[in-house]
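Notebook entry, structure prediction.
Reason for the run: the old model in the group folder had no record of what sequence produced it. Starting over properly, with the input documented here first.
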Amino acid sequence: MIQPIVGIKLKSKRFVSLLNAKGQIAKHVFVYRDDFDGGKIPVFLCKMQTEAKIQKIFKIGQIEVPENYLQQISANADCEDAKKNSIRITTTLNDEGMLAINVAISQNKKYKPLKLYQTNVISEIEAQDYQDLQNSLLDYGDFVKCISTDAELLPEEDISKNEILKETNSKIKIENKKKKENTSDEYYELAEKAEESKTSVAGKLVVSVMLVLFIVAASIILIFRKNFKANLVEKEKLFTNIINERVVNEMNSEIDELKARAALLLKMKDSEIVNSFFSNNKDIIALISDETELFNYEYLYANGVKEEKFLEAVKVNKQSASRAKYGKTVIKNVSHILGHRTAVLFIPLENRKYCSLFFTVDKFDDICLSNVDYVSYIVDKKGFIISGIDPQLVLTNQNLCNDPMVAAYLKNNEEKFELTIDDSIYGYFAEVSNGEFAVVTTCSLSGSSKKAMHISREIICLVIAIVLLAMIIIWFIGKRISVCAKALTEATKKISHGDFNINLKTSSHDELGTLTRAFDNMAKSLMVRDNAKRALGRFASPLLEEKVQNGELKLDGENKFSTVMFIGIRNFNKLSKRFRSEELLEFLNNYYDVIKNNVIKNGGYIDKVMGDTVMTTWGTPVSSGTPKQDAINAVMSALKLRKAIIDFNVDLEAAGKPPVTIGCGINTGSVVAGEIGCDEFSSYTCIGPIVSIAAMAEKLNKKYESTILITENTYNLVKEFVKIEEKTPLTSRDIEKPIKLFAVTGLSNEDKDEE
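New structure, fully documented this time:
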């Protein structure tokens, strides 16, 4: 990458460079008080395509001069020494590309230089989501345009007077205008030379499209009238089934929760603990078994319920309770006995015993009434309502056997059943697996007919308007296509006769424009395709094939900002002895499938497989958009892989094989990416110190008993998302200074570490 130019933009229509294309920084620059407003000086970065050509210009920040500095400048307004009426800007650049901008007041030593802005120039270019050129570009005449490798810093030069280093907007506009005019003339000249056809493309297009539109419109209306109502009804039925399934799932979870709390309550012996339990679980009223009777006396006193009522409720439902002795979880409505909307859950225990858990059904009501467009209610095996519809029906323990859906449930004795009543009401029930009761959900179908008719009328009006508008638009489009087709036909004839002197350019971006540009680039495209064909034989990745075909990949090497992760199996030599040779290959293939699926789903690329170690990259050859997002994706992939290996180990242990422990080493920075190898074999990979450090970090997981180790470079990009434990820095004779290492224990928004 060519060294970018960094500078500030002043009010006097001047751009002052602080860092030029040769990497030289300004010793000092004086900026006078009339050159900026409100203490704010914008900082721009110019990405260079070559040392002589600007690729993109965008604003990366601003210098905000402190208030006391501004006051001091104003105080020196009448001073004859102009430099006392200005601020002095100096810059520093370290080996890692970190550019710092410092500001002081002229020669006044009282005001020491302040570091007001700092940025990593290379990271700015790699990480910035570039704005549209028209939104971020300065007036072209305001910007330094380097024309040689000897480009100098121009802290005091008025760019508007430098004819060599500028290109004015007016000149560019004139040239662009000429190009557009020439393009139009070229098209029309070739179109006029072309032989006239017997029939017009525009006319055929209009007639054909109009015919298709009328056929489609008529078909849509007919099909709509016939099927739309049926589709609406099917959707209503589908939504009803979905709502029912959701309620059933929530009921299953609620029953599990009640069982768990009952088991916990049975273990409690101390009365204070029991009272504390009831205080924290106000929906639990009582628990009765052969060996214990526990009551929520706060509820009993508040609602005037006597203990005898609970024993009576158990006695009344003795037959249901006896089913609990044989492993059945049974629920019954006892609201009519206790005088409040409550139910009892008979829970099986060991040795053919059971316990009776009394609770309020408020939570059941909330679940049933969570969707007001559909009616859901709960009934037991005998048709008595437990929750839903009307609280009064629950309180009086009404039997709903006359309800068609309930009658079907009692008659068919099926786990799931659906029923349509008079084409106006649809119902669906499903039995709850955690108890002998079912959830019934119904909806009205009468609204579907009205909706179908209303939408049908709207479609007819819309189709008429579209057809009329399409006739006008297609006529003009057809005329334009006719002209383009004639011009391209004439150009094709010239090429067929060996005349390649064609300057047929266009600003159009549709298929015809693409075809036109293809004439000018034909020879170049054929050469690129041939090179790509030879290169494709050496790659196995579809991703690389696509990028090589599109010319997006430099095979001869390029600098990339990438995150590299090595994944290795701990103690692989020892582990491999537990497998036979054929089992070892099967194990490794399954293991690599787990890694591949995880890495690819998280936007990564599998660079190479080296025995028990896998090298993966983010940012090379494809990036998620920014280095920060690449680093986040890499760490997320490692965390997800750690969970995936747990499931993988379950299958291994089931097969009697030892579990796998992995280590991940992650590092971020600049690498060199390209094709490495010989004529017979080569691969696309990345190399550099960043890769070696990531490999070293992976090996240190065993020493630190960790799973994921990241370097300081990666940590700086992901620190707001992860929880870490700092480890002993990595040292080696191959690296200049120790590198900080951090063990990732989980995501910062998790309740506890995953390590």
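Summary: Residues 18 and 319 are 90 Å apart (CA to CA).
The old model has been moved to the deprecated folder.
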